[in-house]
Amino acid sequence: MASHRDKRKTQRYSAAKEAFVFLRPTFVNLGRVVDLSDGGAGLEYIADKGIAPEWAEVDIVLSDSGTHISRVPCRIVHDSPLDDQAMPLGLETRRCGLQWGELTPRQQVHLKACTSYHGKFNA
């Protein structure tokens, strides 16, 4: 069976520690960006145990570069729980892969700038 990395069409770059995703529409969940590309992103987030995500837009914030990309359309391509030994009862950390939807020209420019900026962290 091929891994997720084998199926990627675009090069991913490791994200800085200060890269986050706010999960729309409620902004209740916050995810940490693990890697980022022109085609999508990998992230980790905390959720109620056993509840699959239903969001279709995210906001990306890269605090080290001051970048905020709003309302990025996405599709969840995989989502699975991680082994959590220290999570409070009823919560779990999940690993999720996103594929970008149809991006505006502005979103494309910002994402390209982010991957160029973080290119030195090539995964």
Task: Walk me through what this model shows.
This is Type IV pilus assembly PilZ. One of its GO terms (molecular function) is cyclic-di-GMP binding. Residues 7-115 form the PilZ domain. InterPro entries: PilZ_domain. The chain is mostly beta strands. It has a single domain (10-117), classed as predicted glycosyltransferase like domains (Thrombin, subunit H, Beta Barrel). Helix content is 14%, strand content 44%. The chain is built from two helices and seven strands, in the order H-E-E-E-E-E-E-E-H. It has helices spanning 4-7, 105-117; strands at 13-14, 19-23, 30-36, 40-48, 57-62, 67-81, 91-100. It has a six-stranded antiparallel β-barrel with strand order 2-3-4-7-6-5.
Quick structural gist:
The protein is mainly β and 123 residues long. The protein has helices spanning 4-7, 105-117, and strands at 13-14, 19-23, 30-36, 40-48, 57-62, 67-81, 91-100.
Oligomer: single chain
Q: Which sequence of SSEs, written as H and E, runs from N to C?
A: HEEEEEEEH
Radius of gyration: 14 Å
The CATH fourth-level homologous superfamily? predicted glycosyltransferase like domains
Count of distinct strands: 7
Enumerate the spans where pLDDT stays under 50 for 5 or more consecutive residues.
1-6
Q: How much beta, percentage-wise?
A: 35-45%
GO molecular function: cyclic-di-GMP binding
Protein name: Type IV pilus assembly PilZ
Pfam family, one: PilZ
InterPro entries: PilZ_domain (IPR009875)
